[in-house]
Specification:
Elements (H helix, E strand, L loop, with lengths): L10 H9 L19 H28 L1
């Protein structure tokens, strides 16, 4: 006798079937981190953000001293 294998529907079909309440929804898989910047780029971004946060405070002191 032949063994019948149960196949799983693709993600797209599973989403459709779960919306039609014909099957329970699948758990979401963790997405890859490829679009995120690498470690050095993240460090540069943090340093730039810190410098930008400090710059308005320095500029305000110079304007107050000039007045």
């Amino acid at each position: 006798m032949l063994a019948i294998r149960m196949t799983r529907p693709s993600d797209r079909v599973a989403k459709f079937l779960s919306q039609a309440e014909m099957m329970k929804p699948r758990e979401r898989r963790e997405q890859t981190k490829k679009p995120e910047p690498r470690a050095k780029a993240q460090e540069r971004m943090k340093a730039a953000a810190a410098a930008a946060a400090a710059a308005p405070a320095d500029g305000a002191d110079k304007e107050a001293a000039a007045s």
